[in-house]
Amino acid sequence: MKRFFLIATIGLLFSSCASPNRSLYDTANTLYGQNWTYMGTIMVYPDIIYSDKITTADKTREISLHDGLISYDKMLAAARKEYGDSVTIANIRIYTEEFKTRWFGRNSDVQAMVDVIYVTK
Questions:
Q1: Most-buried pick from 8, 85, 106, 115 (CB within 10 A)?
Q2: Of the candidates 51, 121, 55, which has an alpha carbon nearest to the alpha carbon of residue 86?
Q3: Residue 111 and residue 50 in contact, taking contact as beta carbons nearer than 8 Å
Q4: Where are the domains of the chain?
């Protein structure tokens, strides 16, 4: 029984370290301190991302945004259309095909998820 609890605890620790929310909080806290509020997450479809040469991050780890690969302006416009003009983008998660299939199903059009926050002054 002790062995079961030990394995369950270790599994919980590993799963919490790989949380998509972890990268959001790390990014937003670095950029804005504590002066932000999470608004929601929007799904990004191929009409927002205009390149087929996107380098995917390993699961939800950080990604380098290269000019021309991802249209930040289009993502920001989509976020502001849904949540209003006072929001900004804190985090962009681009998934590997395996991860995307597991969460969104086979043949999903979702290319990325964008975490939207409201920044208070």
A1: 115
A2: 121
A3: no
A4: 20-119
